[in-house]
Amino acid sequence: MKASGRITLTAWVLLVLCLLTSTLALHNLNQIRSRARFDDVLYVASPKILQRLSLGYGGVLADVYWTRAVQYFGTKHYRASRQYELLGPLLEITTALDPHLTVAYEFGANFLASAPPAGAGMPERAIRLAEYGIRNNPGEWKLYYNLGFIYYMELKDFSRAADAFMRGSQVPGAHPFLKTMAAQMAEHAGELGMARMLWITNYQSTVDRDIRANAVSHLRALQVDEDVINLEKLVSTYRERTGHWPASFTELASAGMLRALPIDPLGEPYKLAPEGRVEVREPDKFPFIEKGMPSGYTPPPPKFLPSDRDAAQSCC
Amino acid sequence: MAAIEIVGLEKTYHVGFWRKRPKCALRPLDLNVEAGEIFGLLGPNGAGKTTTLKLLMGLVFPTAGSARILGVEINHPGMKAQIGFLPEQPYFYDHLTACELLDYYALLSGVGAKERRRKIDEVLARVGLRDASGLQLRKFSKGMLQRVGIAQAIVHDPRVLFFDEPMSGLDPIGRREVRDLMEELKQQGKTVFFSTHILSDAETLCDRVAILHLGELRGVGAVADLTSSVEGKVEIIWHGSSIPASLKPLTSECHLTGDTVRAIVREANQDAAIDALREQGVRILSLTPVRTSLEEYFVRKLKLSETAAGVGL
Amino acid sequence: MRTRIACIASNTFREAVRDRVLYNLIAFALLMSGAAVLVGQISIGIERLVVVNLGLSAISLFGIVIAIFIGIGLVSKEIEKRTLYTVLSRPVGRWEFIVGKFFGLAGTLVVNTGLMAIGVFAALLYVSRALEPAEVWILVGLYFIILQFLMITAIALFFSSFSSPLLSAVFAFSSFVIGSFAEDLHGFADTAQGASRWLATAAAYLVPNFSSLNVITSVAHQQPVTRQLIVSNSLYALVYTGMVLCGAVLIFERRNLK
Fold it and tell me: What's the domain count of chain C?
C-alpha cells in the first residue's frame, strides 16, 4: 500500500494548505468588500419585483435584509457617520418582502427620521415607510404611533401628529397615552410632559433593543432638563432672597428649599456652577440633553446603542 | 512463480445503522494459481466469489491478509497493466460506441497510440463484434455487452485475466464462444481466473477449481482428482417396464420411459446388477460408466460441516 | 498520468454532451430571445440592464443545476452501473479518476457558458444595436460565474464520493444556498457571543463564499470590477476548489466499492 500511502499524505498536506490559504484569501476578500457588502441594495430598482422573484420565500429574505439593516446601521452609528444612505433602501426592501415585519417600521421611525449622527435624517422617507406600514397593517396601533412620532419629533407638525395618534387610539389594544397625547396636543405641544409621554410609549411599544436604549437615553435627558430647570429656578429664588449665589446645594438645603441633595438619573449629584448654573457631572453619559451642559461643551457623537457595542467588537 | 498468490485474505463488513454488526464475507483464504492455467472459483450465490475478485482488483480493501499477482502486491498500479477484469453483468457508458469504449480503456491501460487502432480491430473481430463497432452501446443486447466486456478485458493483451460469471445471460451459442475464447487464451499462455456457479462450464474448462461456501474455502484441486474421489457409477438401460426385485436394492436411481428403463448402479455392484437382469431374461440396451459430475462432489462438500483440506495440487 | 486524467476528462465531457446536456442551450436561447423581444416593448431605457441581469442570472442558475445534477452522478452513477470497476482495475489511480471527472465536468460547463455568453451578447446587440466598452465587465461577471461552477462542481463531486445521489444533491444544493448567504453568516458571527461566535466564524470560513463572486447586479449597471477583487476571488475560488477536491480524493481512496 505504499503508493496509496503517498497519495493520502499528499492529499492531506494539500488539503491543509488549501484550507489555510482559502481562509486567508477569504479574510482578504472580506476586507476588500466591507464597503461593498450592502451596495447591491442600491441596484434593486424595485423592491416589489424582488418580492415577486423571491418565490414565496419573501419572509426569510426579509429577515436576512432586516439583519443587514441592523448591522449596517450599527456600523455606521458606531463610526458616527453623518450618512446612512442605505438605511432607507434596506428598510424598504425588508418591508416590501415582508409587509408585516413591524419592527422594521419602528426602526425606520426612530432611526431613519432622526437627524444625523443619531439617524439618517430622512423624515419624509420615514413617513412614506410608516404610511406603507399602516396600509398593510391597519390593525397595528404601533404604526400609527410611529407616524405621529415622526411628525411630532422631526417635522414639528403637531396637528398631523395629533391626527395620527387619534387614529391609533381607536385601534383596540392601543396604548392609553395615544388618546391622551392626541387630546392634549393642541395646548401642550412641545412641552416636556408630552415628550415624556412619547418616549415612554416608544419604550413600551417595542422589544427592539436599539429603540429601547434610544428611548431610555431620551427619557433620562428629559429628566435632566426638567431637573436643571427646576434647580436653576430654586437657585435664582435663593439669590433673590439672599442677594448672592449659593456656594453649594447644602446651603439651599439648610435654607429649607431642598429636602435632599439632588442627583441625576444615573445617581450622580448635580454640580452647582458659578452664576447659578446647574450642571451634570458627566455630560458624556447623557446624549440628547439640552440643559445642564458645562459651558463650551460639545457633545461627542452618541455611542450608547447595543448595536454600537457589537460594531465595536467586530470592527475596524 | 505462481500467477496469483493469496495468503490469509479476509474481508469483514460492518453493517447496521451504527456499522457495528460484523458480517464476514470472506474467511481467511489461502490459494495459489499457477501461470497458464484456467482456474475456476465455484460456489453458490453469496459464497464470496465476487468479494474475492473485488479484493484482488483493489475495489475493496481486505480486513486482513495479502495477495500478489505476478509476484507484485495487489493495488500496485504497475501490475494492473498486466491484468484484465470482466465484472459481473457489466454495463458500460451508454453513449459511446464499442470502438470508442475500447479506445478509452486501451488508453487507460497504457496502450500506445500506434498500436491501439490495430489491437481494437483485432479484439473486436475476435469477440465477433466487428460489424457493430460503430453502434452506441445502449443499443447492444446483453450478449453483445458481455462480448464487449471480454473485449475490454483483453484489448491490452494482459497476462492474467479475471472474469466474474462470464457466461451469465448468454445463450448456448454465446457460452460456447466464450468457452472457446477462454481456451484460446490459455493456448496463448495466459492465466484465466474466473468465478461461476455453473458447474458444467467449470468441468469442461478448468484445470483446477476451488469451492467456496459461505465465505470459506471447501476444496481445491484438479477437476479429475476431485471427481475421482467420489465413487464411480454405471448407467444400465434395458428394454422392459419394471425393475426386477433383486435389482432394486442395488440402484440409486430409476427412470421408466415408455418401454425402456434406465437405472444407475454403483460400480461395485455392476456385475450383480447384470446378473439380476439376465436372470429375468431382460434385453440390456446399454451399459455406460457415468462420469461423476462435479456437482456431486460439490453437493457433498457443501454438506460437510468441516472445511476440507486441499486435495493435492 | 496526465494522459490518463485527460482521457477520463474527455470521456466525461463526451458522455455529458451525448447525454444531451447541451440541449439546455435551446431552453436558454428561447429565454434570451423572448426576453430580448419583449424587453424592448416593456421597459424603455433599461433594455441593456434587463438583458444583462437576466442573461447572467440564467447562465448562473442553469450552470449550477447542471453542475449539481451531473456532478453527483459522476461517481455514484459509475458505481451503480459498475462502469467504475473496469476503470479501476486498470493502472488508474483513484485520485486520477476524481481529478479527471472534475476537469471533464468543468470543461463541459465552460463550453456551455461560452455558448450562452454568445447568446447574451447577441441579445444585447439586438436591443441596443451597438456594444459599449463598459460591456467588458460582463466578461468578468462570466468569469466569476465560472469560478462559482468550479467550486460547486468540486462540492458535488465531494458529496458524490461517499453519499447516495439523492443525499448528494440535497447537500450540494444546501451548500449553494448557504454559500450565497455567506456574508450574512459572517455578519452573524460578528455579533454572536462566546461559543456560538466561534462556531459561526468557523462555519463562515468553511462554507463556499458565493456572495463575493456575485457581481451580476453591479456589472449590469456597468460598474467596473477592481483588479484586486478579480485576483482575490480567483485565488479564493481556486484554492477552495482544490481543498474540496483533496477531501474528495481522501474519501474516495479509502472507500470500499461494494
Answer: 1
Contacting subunits of B (3+ beta carbon pairs below 8 A): A, C
pTM of the model: 0.79
Contact A4 B75 (CB under 8 A): yes
Per-residue pLDDT at A43 exceeds 70: no
Instruction: Choose between C28 and A312: higher pLDDT.
Output: C28
| Residue B78 C-alpha, separation from nearest chain C C-alpha, in angstroms | 6
**Nearest-by-Cβ selection for B95 from C18, C86, C87:** C18
Domains and CATH numbers, chain A: 45-199 (1.25.40.10), 216-314 (no CATH)
Q: Does residue A142 contact residue A208 with C-beta atoms inside 8 Å?
A: no
C-alpha cell at C101: 471527472
Confidence of residue C245 (pLDDT cuts 50, 70, 90): very high
> Per-residue confidence at B292, pLDDT binned at 50, 70, 90?
low
Q: What is the pLDDT of residues C116-165, one digit of tens each?
A: 898 888 888 887 777 777 778 889 999 999 999 999 999 999 998 888 88
Query: Which residue does chain C place closest to B74, by CA atoms?
Result: C89
pLDDT score, position C44: 63
> What mean pLDDT is predicted for residues C167-191?
87
Q: Please give the grid coordinates belonging to residue A209.
A: 433593543
- CB proximity under 8 Å: B 63-122 to A: 73, 75-77
Q: What is the 3-state secondary structure (H, E, C) of chain B?
A: CEEEEEEEEEEEEEECCCCCEEEEEEEEEEEEEECCCEEEEECCCCCCHHHHHHHHHCCCCCCEEEEEECCEECCCCCHHHHEEEECCCCCCCCCCEHHHHHHHHHHHCCCCHHHHHHHHHHHHHHCCCHHHCCCEHHHCCHHHHHHHHHHHHHCCCCCEEEEECCCCCCCHHHHHHHHHHHHHHHHCCCEEEEEECCHHHHHHHCCEEEEEECCEEEEEEEHHHHHHCCCCEEEEEEECCCCCCCCHHHEEEEEEECCEEEEEEEHHHHHHHHHHHHHHCCEEEEEEEECCCHHHHHHHHHHCCCCCCCCCC
> Tell me: the pLDDT tens digits for A198-218?
889 888 888 888 889 888 988
What's the gap in Å between the CA of C86 and the closest CA on chain B?
Answer: 6
Which chain C residues are closer than 8 Å to B54 by Cβ?
A: 85, 257
* Residue range(s) defining the domain that contains residue C9: 2-254
**Ramachandran quadrant class, C222 (left: phi over 0; alpha: psi -120 to 50; beta: rest):** left
For residue A119, pLDDT over 50 is answered with yes
Residue A2 — pLDDT band, cuts 50, 70, 90? Answer: low
Please tell me the predicted confidence (pLDDT) of residue C159.
Answer: 92
Q: What are the grid coordinates assigned to B165, written together?
A: 460469471
- Cα–Cα distances (Å) from B97 to B77, B145, C6, C11, in that order, read 27, 11, 19, 12
Contacts of B76 in chain A (CB under 8 A): 3
Partner-chain contact B93 C11, CB within 8 Å = yes
**Do residue C7 and residue B107 have CB atoms under 8 angstroms apart?**
yes
Whether B189 and chain A come into contact, CB under 8 Å, resolves to no
Output DSSP code: residue A46.
Answer: -
pLDDT tens digits along C12-55: 998 888 877 778 888 888 888 887 777 766 666 677 778 888 88
Cα A224-A225-A228 angle, rounded to 5 deg:
80
The highest-confidence range among A240-249, B9-18, B206-215, C213-222, by mean pLDDT, is B206-215
C-chain residues within 8 Å CB-CB of B91?
Answer: 81-83
Residue B163 predicted with pLDDT over 90: yes
CB contact under 8 A, C184 and A29: no
